[in-house]
Amino acid sequence: MDEPIKISKQELSELPLIKFGGKIHCIDTSEKMNEIYNEIKAHKVLGFDTETRPHFKKGVSNPYKVSLIQLASETEAYLIRIVDKSYIDKVFDILEDENIQKIGISVKDDFRALRKIYADFKPKNFIDLQDVAKQHGIGDASLRKLTGITLEKRLSKTQQLSNWENQTLNNGQKIYAATDAWICLKIYSKIIHNFKKIK
User: Fold this and answer.
1) What residue ranges define each of the domains in the chain, with the CATH number in brackets?
2) 160: how many CB neighbours lie within 10 A of its CB?
3) Neighbouring-strand partners of residue 95
4) d(CA 55, CA 63)
5) How far is CA 103 from the centre of its chain?
6) What are phi and psi of 175, to 5 degrees?
7) DSSP code of residue 138
8) Own/partner long-range contacts of 143-146 (Cβ < 8 Å, ≥24 apart)
9) pTM of the entire structure?
């Protein structure tokens, strides 16, 4: 049996950075959601991720409250802020749409967090990259290492611990969030087409 495919921290650090270069839509009002809803629903496959606000105070545990939901196609990224609950039904309608394939990583963790917002959430047609990677003999399953192994690129994590509940997301946050969802699509396609499935 072949050894699992892995990448070292040193190898990863030497790779060129990759980031999303398409159009980013930031959705934070019911008006914006109404405008973009049908466009999102028209996609057959989307990359998926979430962001949460970190806690740094001693003795304060992170309740893992989702601040942002990201969905991305090859050319469009949709950053859905969970600040206005008036459009929450539409958000979960998208996530529960079995006609849209959603590709993410460690999605069960996201599901648990999302149920704190929407208790009846029933995710449909999600693919977890960790499962796909394992099926194709890849031993490193973090998003950063999967990016290095499959795309030979490096994913920046500089914005990971930024405040996702800021009144306005800065440009760095937007690009980071869009990239995390979009990169899931790129990795999935690369694994399916270029890595042999193991028995």
Assistant:
1) 9-194 (3.30.420.10)
2) 12
3) none
4) 9
5) 8
6) -65, -45
7) B
8) 143/105, 143/180, 143/183, 143/184, 143/187, 144/12, 145/6, 145/7, 145/12, 146/105, 146/187
9) 0.92
Strand, helix or coil at 53? Answer: coil
Overall size of the chain counted in residues: 199
Residue partners of 66: CB distance under 8 A and separation at least 6: 50, 51, 52, 82, 110, 113, 114, 116, 117
Read off the tokens for 163.
């405040």
CB within 8 A of 10, min separation 6: which ones?
none
Q: How far apart are the first and last CA of the chain?
A: 10
pLDDT band, residue 65 (cuts 50/70/90): confident
C-alpha–C-alpha distance, residues 153 and 173, integer Å:
19
pLDDT tens digits along 154-187: 998 776 667 888 889 999 999 999 999 999 999 9
Query: When comparing pLDDT for 170 and 55, which is higher?
Result: 170
Q: CA 177, CA 117: separation in Å to the nearest integer? A: 20
Which residue has tokens 């990583």? 105
pLDDT of 57 above 60:
no
